[in-house]
């Protein structure tokens, strides 16, 4: 997979390193000469250019990229890069960094963004996830399709504890993608049983989140009543 990253700061370099370790091709783009630190990520391609300029993106051959990541520290730049990547070059997957949570509402498919990642929001979500049992926590927002990655830890008294995954009537537009049980990460099948304390990760439409939370938080005594 070929990935272009706009922004070669600490965030961009860190993402590049992870992707390279996983065997992907990476191009780092930055207009600041001081950001071009080839020795820090020597396996990557580097381009000194303004990622908001069409000529620069032509030089980067963005049309050959499977993914573009707008990872600069400027939300305006990230939006422009996302829009150009999607509309001018037809990049299949565009991921954008949100620096100011107040701007998060802009990072949607209208600006070419498939996935918006807000570091402050993600950090607060991870804190909630660590201490919340029975409450739905939104971890990540997928702008395209209005879907979110959400997590809920099944409480001890949950009515669904001991139930087969295939027997649960999940809300529409929701998909159980992972069960984290202790140190194990399970890909759920219809024959797996849910257990109290399971961390359940779903991709769910935002309109279904409340319904999903109600279902997972239902207690045995309330279900019996």
UniProtKB/TrEMBL annotation:
It comes from the Bacteria. Signal peptide: none annotated. InterPro entries: K_uptake_TrkA, NAD(P)-bd_dom_sf, RCK_C, RCK_C_sf, RCK_N, Trk_Ktr_HKT_K-transport. It holds the Pfam family TrkA_N. GO terms for molecular function: potassium ion transmembrane transporter activity. The keyword NAD applies. Keywords: Ion transport, NAD, Potassium, Potassium transport, Transport. Residues 137-218 form the RCK C-terminal domain. Residues 1-117 form the RCK N-terminal domain. GO terms for cellular component: plasma membrane. This is Trk system potassium uptake protein TrkA.
